[in-house]
Design goal:
126 residues, rod-shaped, alpha+beta, 1 helix, Pantoate--beta-alanine Ligase, Chain: A,domain 2, four-stranded antiparallel β-sheet, single chain, 4 strands
């Protein structure tokens, strides 16, 4: 093998190793972001369900905000901020629209929203 062949092989090896390292970093970053986005969806779904169940027992406030951690537990220093709004007579009279928005920072502002509709008749049939 000549010196030129060794230098070309070294250069190719450096390019391949650099590309592989960059791919690994990108993969780890993407996986971490996807994990946080999935956690945010679980937080939104859990908070929405909690508000629906609470509303069956007593009226929930028209709006509010709570912080959650990655495990979906309420935590004042949690990563996720979950806010909700309860709009009466939307989309029709006798119904309420309950929207839960979850926000978090992950290389910029991120958010997720879930919406459901509730009856205001509280179990009474028309």
């Amino acid at each position: 093998m000549t010196l030129i062949e060794v230098m070309v092989a070294g250069a190719l090896l450096a390019i391949v190793l650099t590309t592989t390292a960059m791919s690994l970093v990108f993969g780890f970053t993407t996986t971490a972001r996807a994990r946080r986005a999935a956690a945010a969806e679980r937080v939104a779904a859990g908070h929405l369900e909690m508000l629906v169940l609470e509303n069956r027992l007593r009226p929930v406030p028209a709006s509010g905000s709570v912080r959650f951690n990655l495990e979906g537990q309420q935590d004042p220093g949690g990563l996720f901020t979950s806010t909700w709004s309860l709009d009466p007579n939307r989309p029709v009279p006798g119904a309420q629209r309950l929207a839960v928005d979850v926000q978090w920072q992950d290389g910029g502002a991120r958010s997720s929203r879930l919406v459901t509709y509730l009856s205001t008749t509280r179990g009474r049939r028309p």
